[in-house]
Design a protein that fits this description.
Blueprint (H helix, E strand, L loop, with lengths): L6 E3 L2 E3 L4 E2 L3 E2 L4 E3 L2 E4 L3 E4 L7 H12 L6 E3 L5 H4 L2 H7 L4 E4 L1 H11 L7 E3 L5 E3 L4 E6 L9 E5 L4 E3 L16 H12 L4 H11 L6 E3 L10 H12 L5 E8 L5 H15 L5 E5 L5 H10 E11 L2 E2 L1 H12 L5 E8 L6 H9 L5 E3 L4 E3 L5 H14 L1 H6 L20 E6 L4 E6 L2 E6 L2 E8 L3 H9 L1 E7 L5 H8 L28 E14 L3 E13 L8 H8 L10 E4 L5 E3 L19 E3 L2
Parallel strand pairs: 7-8, 8-9, 9-10, 14-15, 16-17, 16-18, 18-20, 20-21, 20-22
Antiparallel strand pairs: 1-6, 2-5, 3-4, 6-7, 11-12, 12-13, 13-14, 18-19, 23-24, 23-27, 25-26, 26-29, 27-28, 28-29, 30-31, 30-32
The chain binds MU-OXO-diiron.
Length: about 600
């Protein structure tokens, strides 16, 4: 493998290995990479597995072309790379060993010597000149052991990345990089996402043209592809849109449920459905798929008052690798004391940002009509966005979409010539900035609409998140025609003579109506800004914030009917009249939902 005239590959392929690190099947073998930089000084990067000593030393001798090495750079002490340090040191007695302090302690453990008389200890920011080439050392703890040091050669912009960016598979195997790199990553460093992310951040300051890892191919083009995958993996992000189903099945009934679900998911437009039998398929492959997709379904049986052993092992693999940021759905099977769903949920519940699907499938021995319906409901839930994204399956008249428009909440103040008035609205929008034009829509039923039509001025008070529910009750749930909404409230006025709120706002603006548009139920006032003041830095109250944090939970206990989503008013009855208007907040039937 050609890297450059000065940087040579001297690694080996291992096709004899059965299990890498004693646990990972590697059908296409492994590569143990090693490199030499030949300059005024000669530096060797890492050794190889103990079974390939002679082959590696032959490769090294050939690359040296009669020179002798000055340095052995030890990036990582795991024996697949360090096994030949002592053999190298004996063969080249004048070479100096370069490694981190932790690596030298490990050498003492492995070889009975820490090379005290012939070593250079390096840490973050140290460098070593070879002549034209300069080695810059960067510590990379826990990627994959604590002693790891990566080296950046700044002349040719080459990063010697230790285990990072490595993969399973010998270099003569023709296979996809990402598949075996992902299985390798999540198997070996999946637990250390935070540490990988911090190394990536450090490396982002370097201009890298070539990555020389300790396993897998040298990467010298399209590096952003590999860096992007490492960024997703280390942050436990979603790499591929789709759903992963991992199951165990003793007599085939759980498998039948999985097959039925997989079929339904495909029918509903899920872009990729991947299914694994945990008892028969490669566990490491299942682990990488769980981290690849954003949604996973776990299906298993209750077993010895717990869950089936392969599922327990699988979930333990996930949790020990910080499984997070995923939607998890559960299918359980149990004939007399089912509890698999409960056990799986408990095992995963400590994960960060794990959302469990609302629907769980409960099988009692074999599928029946009830559990088939549960599979349908789960498929619908998991495919919500896929169904909506597809032109042929989407509900194209789902007006709930309008509820997702983001709104702030405001008190619009006005004066009818005798009394100040205030009204809660969420329909304030800046239309243009040159000149500043602000639109305010107000329901014609409100007294404020009537006043502003006549006076042509208003103040818009931007409520902050400090506003309590009483503010909404005061300005929103009653009419200024009947009550004085400013009774007992400290008087503060802007230059147009109107009130602004002394509390609970972060700013207000005085508006002058330039144009009025009749919108049927509402009037739209298009206004210029005559005054604008910022009162505080507290965040603006949004409609969502109000719903989640300010509005009291409606008292629906024991009641049947419909509840107003704006103010919590409960209409008791079997049917809500289409033209119903909330007596408290004046919102229409569309803002009501059935009491649950
Ligand atoms: Fe390739 Fe962590 O050794």
């Amino acid at each position: 493998m050609f890297i450059s005239d000065s940087i040579k590959y001297i690694g080996v392929n291992d096709h004899k290995i059965d299990l890498f690190e004693g646990q990972y099947v590697v059908p296409n073998g492994m590569a143990y990479n090693s490199y030499v930089i030949v300059d005024d000084k000669v530096a060797v990067f890492d050794t190889v597995d103990r079974n390939y000593s002679h082959e590696w030393l032959d490769n090294l001798k050939k690359a040296l072309g009669g020179r002798t090495p000055d340095y052995l750079i030890v990036s990582h002490m795991e024996p697949d790379h360090s096994a030949n340090i002592a053999a190298f040191a004996n063969l080249y007695p004048h070479a100096v060993i370069v490694a981190s302090a932790k690596a030298f302690s490990m050498m003492q453990n492995f070889f009975g010597t820490d090379f005290a008389d012939r070593r250079i200890t390096v840490g973050e920011g140290d460098s070593l000149s070879l002549g034209k080439h300069v080695l810059n050392f960067h510590t990379a703890p826990m990627v994959h052991w604590p002693e790891v040091v990566m080296t950046y050669e700044s002349t040719e912009k080459v990063l010697f990345s230790a285990d990072a960016f490595g993969k399973f598979g010998a270099l003569d195997a023709d296979e996809d990089w990402a598949c075996e790199a992902r299985r390798y990553y999540f198997g070996i460093v999946g637990k250390y996402g935070a540490q990988v992310a911090s190394v990536l951040k450090k490396l982002s300051a370097l201009e890298v043209a070539v990555i020389c890892p300790l396993h897998g191919p040298v990467l010298n083009e399209n590096l952003s592809y590999y860096l992007n995958l490492y960024s997703i993996w280390s942050s436990y992000g979603v790499e591929t849109e789709g759903i992963f189903i991992a199951y165990t099945s003793v007599y085939g009934n759980t498998k039948k449920a999985v097959d039925a679900l997989a079929e339904k998911l495909k029918e509903k437009g899920c872009p990729k459905v991947s299914v694994t039998d945990l008892a028969r398929d490669d566990m490491a492959e299942a682990v990488e798929d769980a981290f690849r997709y954003g949604k996973i379904v776990l299906a298993t049986t209750t077993y010895n008052a717990d869950i089936f052993p392969f599922m327990r092992t699988f979930i333990e693999h996930l949790t020990e690798r910080n499984f997070s940021n995923r939607t998890v759905a559960l299918i359980e099977n149990g004939s007399w004391a089912p509890q698999a769903a409960k056990v799986m949920k408990e095992m995963l519940s400590s994960g960060k940002n794990i959302k469990f699907a609302d629907n769980t499938v409960h099988i009692r021995s074999a599928l029946n009509e009830e559990s088939r319906n549960q599979i349908d409901a789960l498929a619908d839930e998991l495919c919500t966005e896929y169904i909506a994204q597809r032109g042929d399956s989407a509900n194209k008249n789902d007006l709930k979409a309008l509820f997702n428009i983001g709104y702030g909440l405001y008190v619009v103040t006005s004066n009818d010539g005798e009394r100040d008035n205030g009204l809660i609205v969420n329909t304030v929008t800046q239309l243009t900035s040159s000149p500043n034009r602000v639109a305010v829509a107000i329901n014609k039923d409100n007294y404020s609409h009537h006043i502003i039509r006549q006076t042509g001025i208003m103040n818009v008070n931007c409520l902050s998140t400090e506003a309590p529910f009483s503010v909404f009750q005061n300005y929103g749930f009653r009419s200024g025609r009947n009550v004085d909404k400013f009774e007992g409230i400290a008087e503060m006025r802007s230059d147009n003579g109107l009130r602004f709120l002394p509390q609970y706002i972060n700013s207000f603006m005085s508006l002058k109506v330039e144009q009025y548009i009749d919108m049927g139920t509402h009037g739209l006032f298009v206004c210029s800004v005559t005054e604008a003041r910022v009162i505080s830095k507290v965040e603006t109250m949004t409609y969502t914030y109000y719903q989640n944090n300010v509005k009291p939970k409606p008292e629906t206990e024991g009641k049947k009917g419909f509840v107003c989503k704006v103010c919590g008013y409960v209409y008791e009855g079997d049917e809500l009249p289409e033209d119903f208007v909330c007596p408290l907040c004046k919102h229409g039937a569309a803002d009501f939902e059935p009491v649950k």
